[in-house]
Amino acid sequence: MHSRPVGTITRGTTGHNRLRRVDRWLAATHGHRLRAASDPLVVDLGYGAHPATAVELFARLRNVAPRTELVGLEIDPARVHRALPLRRDGLDFKLGGFELPLPGRRPVVVRAFNVLRQYPVEEVPAHWELLRSRLSPGGIAVDGTCDELGRRAAWITLDGHGPQSLTLSVKFATLDRPSDVAERLPKALIHRNVPGEHVHRFLQAFDRAWAEAASVAPFGRRQRFLRACTAMQQSGWPLLDSPSRWRLGEVTVAWSAVAPGSADRRPDHQGP
Q1: CB–CB of 73/96 below 8 Å?
Q2: How much is the pLDDT for 10?
Q3: What is the pLDDT at residue 165?
Q4: What b-and-e string marks burial along 152-180, b requiring 16 or more CB atoms within 10 Å of the CB?
Q5: pLDDT tens digits, 220-249
Q6: pLDDT tens-digit readout, 112-166
Q7: Under DSSP, is residue 102 helix (H, G, I), strand (E, B) or coil?
Q8: C-alpha closest to that of 240 among 135, 152, 165, 156
Q9: pLDDT of the residue at 266
Q10: Cα–Cα dist 91/109, whole Å
Q11: 207 Cβ partners below 8 Å, 6+ apart?
């Protein structure tokens, strides 16, 4: 039993539409979980100094799952107090941290964005474990990071068994090469983007596929990205989504392909 919120007060910087990329992905790829749930509860963990992004997530998820309820959790009482005037049917704000203090309820979805990035990397596994222990059966948690304007983002999806995937999402106008998103990798991976690590090999392979797709560059970055993702999949990388997501500047790869650990660096080995 936790007597006080588990976590540390973060900077709390946020802004309208900053998290639109992960919101739209959650609605499109996990809305079915909320529609099927008897208690379609979502937690926005660490929503920051202003609750704008929590309100936006609530609205976007309600568009695809009208019974969705969302609770924004913050460990700073002042932030909770400032958010209370925005409460409405299905939307609430409470004091809490990674322990998710919601007696009798387990969330279907937890979004923790730009939170763990501000923690020491050695603390990440314990916080993941605590979050996962609070999920409803079949629920997911998303640990992610994005830039100040939400144009580049990356997130790890966890379920009750552990991390399952890494998603990269970029606005095409900001993209020079796929590895540009490396600076926004979640805490568990950002320091692993070095030679010999799986995530580094993945990003390097993606950059090569992007370079080899230069022939379609005159048709725009979207077509080049689609071509690069197709090449990655054909070479054996376990991409978990399809062109319908790639055309949005988004790609999801199985966690096994990017998890921390020594990578096979044989030059003739393109896939995992």
Answers
A1: yes
A2: 63
A3: 98
A4: bbbbbbbeeeebebbbbbbbeeebeebbe
A5: 999 999 999 999 999 999 999 999 999 999
A6: 999 998 889 999 999 999 999 999 999 999 999 999 999 999 999 999 999 999 9
A7: coil
A8: 165
A9: 38
A10: 14
A11: 177, 178, 179
Q: Which two tokens stand for residue 68?
A: 């969705």
For residues 178 and 232, give the distance between their C-alpha atoms in angstroms, rounded to a whole number.
Answer: 12
Rg of the Cα trace of the chain?
19
Block residue for tokens 């976590």? 7
Contact 222, 247 (CB under 8 A): yes
CATH 3.40.50.150 location in the chain = 20-172
Residue 8 — pLDDT band, cuts 50, 70, 90? low
Nearest to 53 by CA among 69, 70, 39: 70
Distance from C-alpha of 75 to C-alpha of 173, rounded to nearest angstrom: 36
Q: Are 70 and 60 in contact (CB under 8 A)?
A: no
Which 3 state secondary structure label does DSSP give 28? helix
DSSP string computed for 219-272: G-HHHHHHHHHHHHHHTT--B-S-HHHHTTTEEEEEGGGTSSSB----TT----
* CATH number of the 20-172 domain: 3.40.50.150
CA angle 194, 205, 188 (to 5 degrees): 40
Mean pLDDT of the chain: 92
The residue length of the chain stands at 272
Strand 69-74 and strand 91-95: pairing?
Answer: parallel
CA 238/CA 227 separation, integer angstroms: 16
Helix (H) or strand (E) holding 93: strand 91-95
Global pTM value? 0.92
Residue 109's pLDDT is 98
